[in-house]
Structure formats: C-alpha cells, structure tokens
Here is the input.
Amino acid sequence: MSDALAVMMVATGPECIAFIPPLLESLKRFFPSHDAFVFTDREEPLEATKIFQAHVGWPNVSLKRYHAVMAERERFSKYDYLLFIDTDMLVCQPVTIEEMFGKGITIPVHPCYPDCYERRPESKAFIEGNPTYYQACLVGGSRDEFFAMCDTIIRNIDEDESNGLRAIWLEESHINRYLMDNPPVRPLTPAYAFPLLINLNHPETWLPEGVSAEEFEPKIRHLHKTWKKDAHDWYIKKEE
Here is the structure.
C-alpha cells in the first residue's frame, strides 16, 4: 500500500487564488499521488478539497498558517506525510516520496537570504550563531513529526504575541528556531524552491559543477506573487 500524502496551501483574499489552478495542475502532473487541500474564502471552483479560511490579511495569513492546519488535525491524521506549499510555486520535474520525505521535517535551504535570523533574545524564535537558514515556502514531513513541529510553532508564536512580539520573518523565524533543535531529515537544496534569478544568492554552494543558474532545471520554481500571468505562461511554455 502506498504512503498517503496530503498537500496543503492557503489562498485567501482576491490575489493568491489565481496561482492555485496552475499549482494544482503541476502537482497532479509531477508529484506522487496525493490529496490537495486549499484553505480559502474564495468561491472559485478548484480541483481540490476546499477548507474555509477567513481572510485575515497580512501578516497573519502567513504567521497563523499552522494554526489553521492544526484546527483540521483530525482531517489530516489519516495521512502518512503532510506538505505545506506556498501558492506561488510550480512543480516542474517529477518528485518522489523517497526524495521528499523521511522520519522528520522536509524543507529547502533558503536560496536568497541565508542569514535572516531573529536576533532578539526575548523572542521564542531567537537564534544565536549562524546555522543553516531554511525557507518556509515548502515545509513537510511525516505526520507525527509535522504535528509536533506545528504544536511547538503555534505555542511559541502565541507566547511571543502575548508579550507584544512578532518574529522578524513570522512563522519562518519560528520554523528555523525549531529546526535548530530538531534538524530536518530532508534538508532540500534550493532546487525545490528556485527563485527568480535576480533574487538568487550563493548558488555556487549547491549548483552542480559546471552548470550555471541560467541553465539549471529546478524541481520546483518559486514565483513572485504579483506575477500571476507570468506564472501561468511559464507553465504553458514548459508544456510546449
């Protein structure tokens, strides 16, 4: 029996919903068999299970994403693996369960900003030193480890909030704090969150020898959220 995978994303308000159909299409084509879930307040029909989520605006739409996930804990408890992915992502090469998941957390190294730590000691996201910095656009793992991560992040965000604090990079700061104590079992390269080239930093640390960033074929692209038309056109171009 194959492992059960749930892929989750949030698209509330009028902007992000345009990214969902091409993302779902790319997941269907290149990802292992999975069930897709979209937390949304929109009425547009989607080829995914819709879970109502009120539009809470920025930054809470990002900061409180794991609060939304854990409110549906019973729904997701039947899956072996869980993955949260940003709406402005496109899968563009086949991805397998084996390369993405193990017993622990899966997350890509940040391809653009390798040192955006929360440095205030009073925050629960505080990081001392310079560990690997991970990007929260794609976070997954085996069910129990994913739930454990969510529980810790929610507790720390709520404690910060009660003390009048908000981590510098929201839930990403808290994820990086969590991963200092619970290193990811799958620290993916930026090939799984490949940005626009103008934003790409330190590629020499992970690109294959002799391959330039311009030539590299990533597994998953991370597109800027204001480029709705470009996101769709890029996917159609790849199909041709």
About this structure: The CA atoms of residues 111 and 202 lie 7 Å apart.
